[in-house]
Structures are given as C-alpha cells and as structure tokens.
Amino acid sequence: MGLMKVVVVALMWVMVAGRVRGEEVTYDGRALIINGTRRILFSGSIHYPRSTPQMWPSLMAKAKQGGLDVIQTYVFWNAHEPEQGQYNFKGRFDLARFIKEAGAQGLYVSLRIGPFINSEWKYGGFPFWLRDVPGIVFRSDNEPFKFHMEKFVTVIVNLMKAERLFASQGGPIIISQIENEYQNVEAAFGEKGPSYVRWAASMAVGLQTGVPWMMCKQDDAPDPVINACNGLRCGQTFAGPNSPKKPSLWAENWTSRYQVYGEDPRPRSPTDLAFAVASFVARKHGSFVNYYMYHGGTNFGKSASSYIPTSYYDQAPLDEYGLIWLPTWGHLRELHAAIKQSRKPLLSGTYTNYSLGHLQEAHVFRTNSGRCAAFLVNFGSKARLQFLNATYNLPAQSISILQDCKKVTFNTAKVNAQYGERSANPVQYLNQNQQWRAFAEEVPSTKQNSLVAEGLLEQMSTTKDVTDYLWYTISYNHSQNDGQQTLHVDSLAHVLHVFLNGEIVGTIHGSHNGAKPVFENPIPFREGQNDISLLSVMVGIPSSGAHLEKRIAGLRHVRVQGMQNSMQDLTYNQWHYQVGLVGEKMLIYTRKGSKQARWKHLLGYTNKPLTWYKTRFDTPQGTDPVVLNLRNMGKGEVWINGQSIGRYWVSFTTPSGQPSQSLYHIPRSFLKPTSNLLVLLEEMGGDPRSITVETISVGRVCGKVSESHHPSVVYKSKKPRVRLECQQRRKITSIEFASFGTPVGNCSSYALGSCHSVASKAVVEKACLGMKKCSVPVITSRFGDDPCPGITKSLLVVANCS
Ligand SMILES: *[C@@H]1O[C@H](CO)[C@@H](O)[C@H](O)[C@H]1NC(C)=O
Ligand SMILES: *[C@@H]1O[C@H](CO)[C@@H](O)[C@H](O)[C@H]1NC(C)=O
Ligand SMILES: *[C@@H]1O[C@H](CO)[C@@H](O)[C@H](O)[C@H]1NC(C)=O
Ligand SMILES: *[C@@H]1O[C@H](CO)[C@@H](O)[C@H](O)[C@H]1NC(C)=O
Ligand SMILES: *[C@@H]1O[C@H](CO)[C@@H](O)[C@H](O)[C@H]1NC(C)=O
Ligand SMILES: CC(=O)N[C@H]1CO[C@H](CO)[C@@H](O)[C@@H]1O
C-alpha cells in the first residue's frame, strides 16, 4: 500500500467514526417519530431568499423562543439554476448554510423541494429555460419534464446528503416535500395527472433520504408519502390522513393571506389563528402545524409573481424586517407551551369526544396512567360549559386547553401577551434638488429599433424574464380627413404605457383578479407619420395554475378606429421591438454602469414617466431596520449599491385609499457606512425629493391582563402578570399609562374606568423604568388598598421603549 493510500484509508476511517450518527425519522398514526419518540412539532415557514444570511440567526432565535421546533422552507429552483446546468448556492441562496443555522439553534427543518412551489414566487419556482425544453408539459407525466424535475430534486437531495443534513445522518432535516398542492390542478392533466403523482412519489422515495416525504393538498398521496393539509382551518376542513398509519400534518396554516397590489392587507387575528391550531390538534389529532409564513420577508429583485408586492406576509409572527409582531408572536408562544404540556396524553392517550351543546364540543385524551388533556371547543357565542363536574366560561369562538382535564392553561380568545406599536421614523431627507440626478429613458421610434417582426410578439418568450419591459413600436400614417381617431390595445401583460411621437398619452394596468389592460382612448395624431410606442410591462410572471409553460403575455390586438366605423387593424403589421430599457442594458444602477449615463440636473425631470434617478445617502446609525419611504413615487424598481430591493408600485392604491406598499426594506447588509448609491427607475412619474430614509422601531408596548387570567405555562409564575419587553436593545423609558382597576380600551385607545388604584403608575414605574423587560403581578396586594372590592380588576400598562 502506498503512503497516499494509507492516508486516504485513515482519513475515511476518521470520517466514519467521527460522524454524528443519526436515526431514521419515521411516523405512525399519531405523529412523526424522531429518535424513537413521537413528537408534537410547531413549525414556521421562513424562506431563505426572502431575507439575508445576516438576518437568519436572529430570525431563527426568535422562532425558537416563540416555541417553534421546525423551520420550513421551499427550495427555489430558479434561484439555484438560473441558467441550465449553472448552479448558484451563494449568499441569500445558500440553502445549506440556512439549514445548518437552524440546526445550530436546535431547530429541525422541513424541506419542501417541490420543485414546483408557487409561493407567489416568479414562475412558481421554475427556471424560465425550462419553458424552452422541446415537448415539455410542466407537472405532468411527461418525459422531458420528469427528466428535469428528477435531475433537480436529485441535485438538492445529494447536496443535503453531502452536507449530512438529513436527520438520518445526524442533521436537522426531518421531513421533505415533493410537489405542492397538485390536486388543485390535477384534473387539467387527465390520466397523466394521477400517473405523475405516482411517479413523483416513487421518484422521491427512491432517493432514500431516511426521512419521510409529504405532499400537501394531495388526498391520494401514494404510500409511504404523507398527505398534509393546507389552508386556514384544517381543524374543520381536513379529511384526515389517507391511512391510519399516517399522522395528521398541516403544511400551511396561513398566518394572514398574501397581499396583492390594489387590495388591502388581509391580516389574521392572533385569536383566530390560535383557535385554528387548537382545533386541528383537538379535532384532527394534528401533531405538526406549520405557520405560513412565520417570517414572510422581502421579494427582492424581480422575484415576486404577478401583481405581488415586494413585502411578503409582513404581519406574520415575525414582520418583514424580522421584528417580533405583537401580540401574534406572544399569543402563539403561549399556545405552543400549553399544547406541549399535554404532549403525553395527546400523543399516546386514548381519545374520546362529546358534545357539550349545539356548538360546543369536548375532546379528551387520556393515558392509561391517568394523565389527561381536554380541549373545550366553542364555535358559538359566549358559553358556560359543564365538563367533568366543573363549570367553564368560554368566550365566543374560543377553545380552552385543560391540563389534567381540569385546569385551564390557555384560552385562544384571551390575549395575555403584550401588544406593540411599530413605527417608521425619518432619519434622512433627500429633498434637495442638488442631491439628485436624472436620466430620461428614450422612447424608441421606428427608426432605431433593431428587432423587426410581422405581428405582435408574445412577451415572455421574447424577454425570457430578463426584463419586465418590451417596447412595441409602429409607424402610423394619419390624415386629418380621418377625423378624431381612437387607439385600441388589448394586452395580456400587466401594465401598458402608450406614447405618441415620444410623449406619453396614457397608462393603464390590470389587476390580480384577472382584469387585463385594455386601452381605448382618442389619440391626438398629427398629420402624416406618427410613431406609436407601446411599452408593455410585466409585474412578475405567474406562479400558479396548470400549464404554466403555455402562458402568454404582451399585446394581442392593436387597432385604430376612426369616424364612421372605419378601422385599421395593426395587429399583423410590421412592428419594431426593443427588449428592456436602455438603462437596464447599461446596468445604470451599478456604480460602473451609472458612470456611463449622461445624468442631468433634477429640475425639469420630476413627475416625468420613464426616468431614472440617482442619489447617495449615508446609513442610519444603530441596528434598527432601514427602509425607504417612497410616498410620492409611482411605479418602478429600486437598487441600492447595485442590488435590487424589489419593484415598487406606490400609485396603485387599495380600496381604503392607501398605497399597497410605501415602505421598502433595505437589509443592512446591502449597505456600507456612507455614500450608498440609490437608483430608481420611475415608470409613471414621481418626485424623488419626497423620498426619505427611515428606520423601523417598536416604540410602544402595552399589556392588559385580568386578575382572573390563568398565567401562561410559558412562565414559572403562578400569578397573572402584565409582561412587557422592548425589542432592539431598547429600554422602557416612560410609562404612558397604567391603571389597576377597570381600565377601558386597548393599546391604541385607553382610558380610566370607574375603578382605578392611584398607586398604579408608581407601582409599574418602580418595576419597569430603565428595564429591557419587566413584569407586574396583577394582584390587589401589590397596589395597596383594593380600589373596588368584589369586582374583577385588570391592569393595563402602556410603556415607551427607546
Ligand atoms: C437523537 O438523539 C441523539 C442523542 O441524544 C442526538 O445527538 C441527536 O441529535 C438526536 N437526533 C435528532 C434528529 O433529534
Ligand atoms: C367525535 O369524533 C367523531 C370521529 O372523529 C366525529 O365523527 C364526531 O362528529 C365527533 N363528535 C363531536 C361532538 O365532536
Ligand atoms: C361528579 O360528581 C358526582 C357527584 O358528586 C360524582 O359521583 C362523580 O364521580 C363526579 N365525576 C367526576 C368525573 O368527578
Ligand atoms: C400618408 O397618407 C397620405 C394620404 O393617404 C399619402 O399621401 C402619403 O403618401 C402617406 N405617407 C406615407 C409616408 O405613407
Ligand atoms: C382599540 O379600541 C378602539 C376603541 O374601542 C377600537 O376602535 C380599536 O379597534 C381597538 N383596537 C384593537 C387593536 O383592538
Ligand atoms: C386554498 C384553500 O385551501 N383555501 C381554503 C382555506 O380555508 C378557507 C376556510 O376554510 C377555505 O374557504 C378555502 O377554500
């Protein structure tokens, strides 16, 4: 044996011996089984490309503190393989680093490989080149598709194996997902649907990861793949596992509904969310619940799908910036603790249920050794329930969790956790003309365009998703004898800007609900030749539905209508094309590219469509999240030091009259201390002088707890307490309001009630001032004399953190 060979053999021996031994993860009809133990697992979705590696440790620490056991993420194929065969696992796309971070913090990982993921992510995660594979039919029993899907899934599984990330290898991944909500579209594929499902399951299982696979929303998921539920109320809607040998898993319990441009946010109250989770555990014996999303984050660059804003699930337990969203995070944390306290009866007890009224149920889990857990479910209004010889008062639409089937440890409708108020605070104004430079994007005319084609080109296959923009330009000969003429344009893209001889004459857009842009306006043509330049814009490519490979976009029909019904159809004429914008080609948003542009003074360039703006700004001190407030801008995209922080569309207001989004997150890792290059492309017209650099903070916290509340099992204390904690290294610097008695209202609006202890403020100030966190017991003895004997009192405290 040569020396080299000896070294290699020795090295291999060290690697095998030193390897952390793992165990296969299995399951039975009750739960996932890890290391031989059934587990109740709370999981939260955090998507690595929607935050930065610098944010991951803190996001995961807060998830862990919030009572989560698992971090769930999709795998984003088009982020990893933007060009066929060229893989990228760097920076925000460093999947292995993300999973290792979870493992380092003692969290498991649920890996949803897909590779179709929807996720309001462009093209549902599919790389755009996949569309050009000859003969391909996405998500069907189709050889070219299956070839590429298997290849990518194998790349990911092998990468995980090489990094020893499966639990079976000692790593954190305890479950993986193949496909995603396929049943929604299965019928569109006829008999190729079911055979594709069977193929996907057996392909995945064949990769031998040593941990189970699941399919969500796939009632007939083939054994041994587990069918999991997605939705708002799996406690009511889930038909259950398709085998008694499989556990009840909830892959997506939406923490709010994703927002779309032009619609108001659809938040979900913490009490509704807690009800849904408790209901699933009680009624469907759920043992795995994943919050979609636990942290939504930011759709950087052009990663959002059609009409999806840049901010994603801001009102999840962790907000877009990674701050704790109150009181949702705290309320769920207490719920998790209450459920886990009963894990023994839940996972190994026998189950009985009975009706306690028309809309009231009891669900009881009891072990042989006599340990017992009960869930009293009230679907109706406020109710007084008799259960095992005791009386329980339940608020409307709530579930009480009873430890030992006696003591209430949690009620989903009673929020003891603190509330908080988040605000954005301007730190830099960019309101001076001389701070800005402008560069006007040229409107192409028929003379300059290089690409010429007969008829209207389909937009996505022309731009290949490299740009949102495609110019269609045509020359049109108008005679005054034709009188007033109207231009009609039908589009399957999202926005259309109409220019006549280089000047804007109209802008229209469609919407997420399926409305397509249709332009129909009289046009002030001049005598003779006119250039009609139509800028067709995509706001993300679609991410859902069957046959994504066949989707089309761009202009469909263009005609000019005159008086007396005279009509000229230009649809099939010769058109001139420009793919993308001049500024995009120059990479004008990078330091190097911006030097090549001939920038002008700002004056004369505000409120003009298709204008690039640039300035520089210094990074705000401290560690608070940084945002740009784009209040008076229209629509476009923003780059910081060459990195896109996403599209913006402030001018698309919601029914309540608010911009869909006006604050745009700049991760601190995108910034250098001074002189950051900020470049915006404004499509519609806006005034950059109104832009401010702001920081986000939770400046006020508030709690209201009644003396009759049962203290949360998260804490050791047996007394009810108001607990306050500042985030972001802040301290409580003042007590704005404190009343022990019968205060009315909540954190945004409060007042003294008829009963009030005069000692309230002094007691709270003594416990809290100068502290990062404090807790004040809600008991009369702490406040001296009883201000109103015989009446149930509560303590409401509003404090400022700075
Ligand atoms: C299983 O238990 C061993 C020993 O306690 C531990 O090192 C390992 O991390 C556990 N594995 C999992 C997946 O929890
Ligand atoms: C009890 O459970 C059974 C089986 O899961 C179900 O059919 C029935 O509706 C439940 N009854 C109540 C009162 O929850
Ligand atoms: C309920 O009370 C009755 C009468 O006091 C008693 O016989 C019974 O054992 C009690 N049941 C339970 C479950 O405590
Ligand atoms: C435009 O139309 C007028 C009248 O129809 C015609 O005389 C003229 O030659 C046309 N011009 C071009 C450039 O086609
Ligand atoms: C706070 O109380 C006010 C007045 O009663 C009410 O309008 C508001 O909706 C409440 N806010 C919350 C968050 O409960
Ligand atoms: C997609 C999906 O499952 N949506 C469901 C979410 O939950 C609500 C409430 O139960 C249902 O109405 C939706 O159909």
TrEMBL record:
Similarity remark: Belongs to the glycosyl hydrolase 35 family.
Keywords of the record: Apoplast, Glycoprotein, Glycosidase, Hydrolase, Secreted, Signal
Example GO molecular function: carbohydrate binding
Keyword Secreted attributed: yes
Span of domain SUEL-type lectin: 716-802
Catalytic activity: Hydrolysis of terminal non-reducing beta-D-galactose residues in beta-D-galactosides
Origin: domain of life: Eukaryota
EC number per UniProt: 3.2.1.23
Protein name, entry field: Beta-galactosidase
Lineage: Eukaryota, Viridiplantae, Streptophyta, Embryophyta, Tracheophyta
GO biological process terms on file: carbohydrate metabolic process
